[in-house]
């Protein structure tokens, strides 16, 4: 495995591209928006003086010679299916096709390709260059060879991999969404202030970051999409907290917007 293509130059895409480049892989980052590619390049240039990275707007060209393609776009199933269909059509037959989804079915995504045995979910965590875990989530037809290749890839980029059998929310997102949603309900109910609830989780349960601060980092719009999917697939206990829906409707989508549960300055520091 030498050439890796990342589809999507957002928060997760640029982080995955960075760690792949740091590990010595040839990397292509694809996004339909040149502005997103420019921001991705600026981010990666802060960490790397030089790296074998190219940036493209054409998905077909970006995947044409790749050994591994990692999709890192919004958590919208129809979008992922469409991208995987194109990835399958234009990438080499030996290439592994991976999704960075945090909740959605790799089996359903893979069903829109002609190579479901080579499809898998590789769930990275934000910020990618600091977080050590990759959840390797198998679909119904994912082969043992594909799983082994995924673990080998994870090792080469300095990550620990765990194998998770497909189920909505996998292991980490299922637990994390529940914790975050309950913290939001506690804010709504007046149990404590936003800062005190986060501090209680950090000091009392040894979490490195409070659940509300983490939700801001992930993006409240992304968290809401995840909760809606889990509510649909796993039932009532995953019903999104009304305050989450209200904040997203107001455009308070977290750190990237300058406001979520906390307010942030232009450098992303809490005010």
Describe this structure in words.
Its EC number is 1.1.1.157. This protein starts with a strand and ends in a 22-residue tail after the last helix. Strand 2, helix 2 and strand 3 form a beta-alpha-beta unit. The mean pLDDT is 96. It has 271 residues and is α/β, with parallel strands linked by helices. The protein is built from eleven helices and eight strands. It is globular. It has an eight-stranded mixed beta sheet with strand order 3-2-1-4-5-6-7-8, sandwiched between helices.
Topology:
Layout: E1 3-7, H1 11-22, E2 26-30, H2 34-45, E3 53-56, H3 59-62, E4 68-71, H4 77-90, E5 96-99, H5 106-110, E6 119-123, E7 133-138, H6 144-156, E8 160-165, H7 172-189, H8 194-204, H9 211-218, H10 220-234, H11 242-249
Parallel strand pairs: 1-2, 1-4, 2-3, 4-5, 5-6, 7-8
Antiparallel strand pairs: 6-7
Helix pairs in contact: 1-2, 7-9, 7-10
Name the helicity range: 40-55%
Count the DSSP helices: 11
Largest sheet: 8 strands, mixed
Distance between the termini: 44 Å
Got a strand count? 8
Mean of the pLDDT scores?
Answer: 96
Keywords, separated by commas or semicolons:
271 residues, 44% helix, 3-hydroxybutyryl-CoA dehydrogenase activity, alpha/beta, 3HC_DH_C, 3-OHacyl-CoA_DH_NAD-bd, 3-hydroxybutyryl-CoA dehydrogenase
């Amino acid at each position: 495995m030498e050439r890796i293509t990342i589809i999507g130059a957002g928060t997760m895409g640029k982080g995955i591209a960075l760690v792949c480049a740091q590990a010595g892989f040839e990397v292509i980052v694809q996004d339909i928006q040149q502005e997103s590619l420019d921001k991705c390049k600026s981010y990666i240039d802060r960490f790397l003086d030089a790296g074998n990275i190219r940036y493209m707007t054409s998905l077909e060209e970006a995947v044409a010679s790749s050994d591994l393609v990692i999709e890192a776009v919004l958590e919208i199933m129809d979008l992922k299916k469409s991208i995987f269909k194109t990835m399958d059509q234009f990438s080499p037959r030996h290439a592994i096709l991976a999704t960075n989804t945090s909740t959605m079915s790799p089996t359903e995504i893979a069903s829109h390709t002609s190579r479901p045995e080579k499809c898998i979910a590789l769930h990275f965590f934000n910020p990618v260059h600091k977080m050590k875990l990759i959840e390797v989530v198998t679909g119904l037809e994912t082969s043992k060879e594909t799983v082994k290749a995924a673990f080998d890839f994870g090792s080469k980029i300095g990550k620990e991999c765990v194998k998770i059998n497909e189920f909505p929310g996998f292991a980490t997102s299922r637990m994390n969404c529940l914790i975050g949603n309950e913290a939001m309900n506690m804010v709504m109910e007046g149990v404590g202030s936003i800062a005190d609830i986060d501090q209680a989780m950090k000091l009392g349960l040894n979490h490195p970051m409070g659940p509300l601060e983490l939700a801001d980092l992930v993006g409240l719009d992304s968290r809401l999409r995840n909760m809606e999917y889990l509510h649909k697939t796993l039932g009532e206990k995953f019903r999104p907290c009304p305050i989450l829906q209200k904040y997203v409707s107001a455009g308070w989508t977290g750190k990237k917007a300058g406001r979520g549960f906390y307010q942030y300055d232009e450098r992303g520091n809490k005010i």
